[in-house]
Structure formats: C-alpha cells, structure tokens
Amino acid sequence: MLLLVLFSASVATARPLHVIQERGVLSLCAHANALPFASKNADPPGFQIEIARALARELGVALEVEWVTTGYQFRSVDCDIVLDTIGVAEAQAERRLLLSRPYQRSGVGLALPPRRADVTTFDNLVGHRVAVQVGSLAAMLLGRRGVRTVPFGFEEEMLDAVIGGRVEAAAVSPASAEYWNAIHRETPLRFVNAYESEPELSWDLTVGLRRADGALRDAIDRAIERLGTEGTIGAIYARYGIGYRPPRSR
Amino acid sequence: MKPIGALVSMIGLAVVAVGLAACSMAQGTSGTEAKAAMSDTTGNDWMTYHGNYNSWHYSPLSTIDSSNVKRLRVAWVHHPGRSTRGLQSMPLAADGVLYYTGSYSRVWALDGVTGQPLWSYFPKLNDDLVAKQTHSPYTRGIALGHGKIFVGTVDGRLIALDQKTGQPAWDTKLLNSEKLTVGFTGAPLVVKDKVIIGSQGGEWPWRGPIFAVDANSGRKLWEFFTVAGTEEAKKTWGNDSWQTGGGGGWMAGGYDAETNTVWWGTGNPAPLYDWAGADWKTAGPRPGDNLYTTSVIALDPDSGKLKFYHQELPHDAWDFDSAVGEFVMIDRDGKKLVVHPNKGGHVFVYDRKDAKVVNVWPLVKHINFVKGIDPKTGELIGRRDLALGKHQNLCPAIAGGMSWNSGAYSPKTGLYYKIGQEWCMDLEVIKTTPITEPQAQLDIGANFKLRNPEGDKAHGHISARDPVTGAKKWEVMFPEPPLASLLATGGNLVFVPDPRGWLRAYNATTGEQLWSHNNGLGHNGGIISYGAKGKQYIAVATGWGSLVGDEFAELFGEPFKSMPKDSGALVVFTVD
Questions:
Q1: N- to C-terminal Cα separation, chain B
Q2: Which residue in the set B276, B436, B547 is minimally distant from A4, CB to CB?
Q3: Could you give the ipTM of this predicted complex?
Q4: Is the pLDDT of residue B15 over 70?
Q5: Contact B538, B55 (CB under 8 A)
Q6: How is residue B289 annotated by DSSP?
Q7: Chain-centroid distance, C-alpha B72
Q8: Could you tell me the pTM of the whole model?
Q9: Who among B250, B271, B321 is closest to A134 (CB)?
Q10: Residue of A1, A132, A195 to mutate when probing chain B, most B C-beta within 10 A
Q11: Which domains can be identified in chain A, with CATH numbers?
Q12: What is the CATH number of domain B32-574?
C-alpha cells in the first residue's frame, strides 16, 4: 500500500502574530484520543490542550483545536501550533516548523516491573525482550545493540505487555509511563529515565510553530517562560501524574 | 520530498447506518453469484470487480467493433457529487441496471439505458475518522449477489443493500478503524453464500485481515490474518514483530470455482523501511520473510484456511505489494494457470492447483530493486535492501511498475493488455518527526523524490503480450502512466482511459488507435461494457486524485497541476 504525502508543493503563507491577534484565535493541532496528551471528549482534556489554552490566554486570544491523527494533516487543517514537538532540528526540517524555546525535558525511558530494580540503562537489557514502538528510532537503536525489540503500535499496549509479563520492559515516553501509574495504581510500573544517558533518545519538547513570524515566536517564548516560572506548566502536568522536568536547552 | 513512517491512531466513534431513498426497478438477480462464476457470460452483465471469476476484464459483446467505434458517443453522464480523490470505482451491471459507488461508499443504481437514478444509498460514516485518513475516502467497488449489493466502508464496515430498493439489509462492523485509522476501500467478492473482503493494511501496525461474511445474515464467518495467519508464518517474524506487521488485502481477489479456491493478493509489511539492510533475515524491525505479506494466498472459502501460497517478494523492503492487480485465469496446453502482476513490475504465472511458479516476466524496463527473478522458481536474485541513509535511482519508484488498477485479457486475441509505469526515485531513510500517538518518539521514515530513470524520461505504456511468456505483440507509449483499468471486448477493441482525460479505443490485435474522446478529467478508476435493451454500452469512471496521481503535478506539470481532485462522473457511451 502506497503512502505518499506531498509536502513540497507550496510554501505556506505566513500567519504572523498580528493576524492571530486580529482573528482572536490561536489554533492547535492535537490528537482526538490520546490521553494524557490530548482528547476531544475527556475531562480533563489532556495536558497539550491545557498548555495551549494557557499560551492562548497569554497572547490574549482564544484557543481553537484542530483534531488530527497524523502530522500529514497539519497543513490541511491549517493550525498554528503543535505541542510536544521534539526539539531536534534535523527531524523537524521536513515539516518546516519553527521551534519555540523548550518547556519540558523528555525522551525514551524504560518502564519495568517494580521488582526489576537492577535495570538502570538500556544496556542492562541486551538479549531481553523490550517493547518498542514500531518504526521508532528507539526500535532501531536498541535492536542494533542486541536488545530483542518487540514492536507495538501503541504505548498503552506496551505498558500492558510489561504488566502481563510478555516483555521485560517497554521503551516509552515519561508521560505515558507516569500517566499509566496515575490511573493504574493497583499495577504500578517502575520508570527509569534511561534516556538521560542516551543522547539520541533524549530531547527537549518545544512548541512547533507553523507559518509563524519572529514576533509570534517571541510572544510564545515569553509565554512559555512566564508559565514555567509561575508553575502553571508544572501544575498542568501534575494533574495527569506527570512530573515537570525543566528543559536542558534554552 | 515526502516523509513516510509508521502510523497509528485512536479516534472516537459514532457509526449509524442510514438508508436512503428507494425507488422501483432493478430485478433481483437470484443466482447472480452463479452468473459470476461463469467464465463465458452472455456479456450483458458485469458481475464482479474483475468482470467475472476469470478476472479477464473482458466483455464478449461485439456490437461495438472496429468498423463502428468511430461513431461511439456519450449516451449519458451521472455526477455523484462529493468525489473527493476522484471516482476510483469499477461499476457493475446486471439485467440492464448499472450499480456503482463513489467516495464515502455512496452507492447508486441507475437505469443502464437512460442513466435515470433508481435508488441511492449514502451511509453515515464516522466523519471525524474519515477526515483524518490518508487512504480515503475512495471506495473502489462493490459486489453483487443474493439479491444484494455489498459495499465496504473506510470506517471498517461491510454493508448489504437490497438490490431492488437500496435499503440496508445488514451492516456489520469488522474492523476497529477508530484505532487503526484504516478500513475497507476495495471491492468485496461474492463466493457461494459468502462475501469476502480484505482490509487495508500496508504501513499500519496490525495484521491486515481478510474476512468472510454470510451473505444473507451479515454474520462474520471467518477471518484470515495476512500477517502470520498460521503458526508456521509467525516463525517468519522475529521478535513477535507480526503484532504490527501490516499486510492487508486491499483489492478484490479472484475465485477458482473448479478447485473451490479464493485467490487474494496481500499488502506490504510494516514498518516499510527496514534499517537492517542486507541483514534482514536476523536483524531489524521485522526479521525474516514476513509471511504472508506481499504474497498471493489461496484460501478455502468454506473454512478460511490457507490451502497454499507463494510469497512474491520475501521480506518486501520496497512497498511492492501483491495486493495490486487481477488473477487472470487461463488454460494453456492442458495447464490451468493464473497470471498475477506484482507492483514491483514483474508478472507471475502460477499453476492454479498449488501456486507453483510457472514463469515470471518483467512488464517494465526500469527495475533495479532486484537484478532479476528466477522464472522457474520465483526466487529473487540480487536484492537491493535499504539501510539508513541515501539511496539513488531505485527503480521502479514507490508508486510501482504497475499500480492497483487492472489490465485486461482477450480470449479472442489471446493477449494480455497491461499498463506499465517507468519511473524511479531517490530516497533517504531518515529520522523523522513522530507521527504516532502519543507523539513523543522519533520515527524512522524516508523521504522520496520521484525522478526520471537514468537515460530515460518517466513515462507509461500499454502493451499487449502473451500472458504466459510475456512476449510483446504491440505497445503504445504514453507521456504519463495511465492509472485506470483497461477493458477488452469481443469487438476486438481495447479501451484505455488515460490520465489527461482521454478515453481511447485501440484495435486489440494491432494496437492501432481507432477512436478517442476527452472526458475532461483524468481517469483513475474502472471501465466496463454491458448490454441493455439490445445495445452495448461502455461505462467509464472519470475523476482524478489518487495517491499515485498526486505525484503527477510535480513530475509532469500540467494538466495535473490544475486538475481538480474532488470531482468525477460516470460517463457512458454507445453507438447509435
């Protein structure tokens, strides 16, 4: 089955800060059913929605959410921002996203059964079965090191496989693992920030800006700084059981 | 340059089936499935996606022939409206009524003589889901049988409509499309008392099932996973990678009534790009052959059990599905054969009793993903496996040496008519932006850029060949590859709908062009011939906008840059 999506046909026209202010709306691209990240129907609606609302408030405009499933749809729905954009320029060049200042540290960590206190790095799992997201960079890097990577489509399924003993660990995001523990208090997992010793699996999260001008980026940067300093971002993450991790870069 | 990567999702759901207007007419065709089984029909009807179980895309009707085809004129036109991504479907005809489906699984029954609508049915789809799908909202065909019309939906349902009234008879949810984002776009196939339909699959992290549903009740009877559908096949997916293996069977297959065997082609494995390179047997994201992806499989329609198979491309690393194309059943020198094109540009010829390879021949010139394929065994020679990094001039391009539309076979000439696509691509397997929920991991994807083959220009051709040996009788070149199905007729004609909007008729024996007409929009769907009230008709779907067609603007410029992708019509021709 062919999957081709055209990105190069046109350069998007700019939607600078003054246009957003005139419209009175900042639009966010988010997934409709992906808690703790975002949800169309759940309450609370996911930390991406809450952070975006706070950003819009800082800009003095309302938030409008465009529900998408894949990054391919960013252009077709014409949103202004995408949250949790990985702050790796090499990976984002294709999307032509401007990156804001970072607001959270993240990467690919390890979710383990609580009894596995002996595991602190990915290298401890060479030769063992570790759940990975299909097609992910983590799958490739760990596979090359001799970890027996078992692919899954969804992080929730990976964590469930750890609980069920079908794999010995799961290579997942901190947000997914910590949210799992928040809603499955009877079956908690041990989460290790294994990405901290893995440059290719660790990154800061930024706001991806589509078609922005420098003024919009500056305004978003100032908003992130304020929301981080006053504790708003940390409080939002806390509602989902997720820790606030200050970014490494600026 | 275009990124590609693994794709998963979960979306909310709301599915309500709503039947629409019903009118009179359309004789219920009891025993239509029996008609479909006939290899030699009267020619008035076109009963299955591929015409009949022989998959010839051939009408024995001969009223329109080389002597009068110049007088072919438009009899009527039907506009379905809301034709997002064009009109990609193959119409069917029975007892003077023409049935077809447009985007969003909308179905029409039309008077075959006048085009007067008899009934229509617009299913209520999960709009939130449909708006987010990439391989959507086209529907490529329907099936007829047991007095019903059967249509799949992109939100994972198979629906039966009363053939006379268009009222829903049943509506069966088969796939969790809200989680997987994919559903059904291909036509179902009626076999005895069952309706068989294959799901989309390919890059999506599931197991690409093919289903059989009871034609009368809508009850699911069996499900065969094209990914690791047997315990033996699971062993060909290292590290349980079958869990996210892709596959699927997204185009209608064929049926050999003599051996009671359903033939189906399967999709490519996931993830598409395998950074293991030459070490794919033991390393990478899906170590092993990855059965039964990119294969032809033979299923027992009564049990859903696998009878035999042939994997055309073990461990497909190029997105060259076997899901494309037809299963052309022909008898030659006492042998019962089936001819099946593979997207990579080779045509496979099998023995119908066991899928043993009889011959393999290349339809297109520019192939370098393998150095060759052994014509006696089907074994790949000199694979070009892809690792992380840049790869230049891989041929054919990801759009394939052949696309999903069907060729045609004429028993009068003994020739097989098929479109070939000559193009290549540069690609780079890269780290790319995550596109998966929860959007917090980096993916491995690839950037593609379609290009001219070295020393040549990208183009297409129609050739007339011996279906068993591949020997070429004639060939017509096109500046861009046609992307629609072909039709052969008893009037010794071959009809070719082209991407610029021209429908042309050729002498089936010589390749001489005899007639042409501009329909005003590119063709990217089906074409049939049927008879009603003593006259022969040619019906062709117009409308541009498939995923492969999307590439034409960048590669070929106009008229594709300005060609609408949300329009289409069914245009019907006859001779007075």
A1: 50
A2: B547
A3: 0.76
A4: no
A5: no
A6: -
A7: 28
A8: 0.88
A9: B271
A10: A1
A11: 17-105+203-238 (3.40.190.10), 109-197 (3.40.190.10)
A12: 2.140.10.10
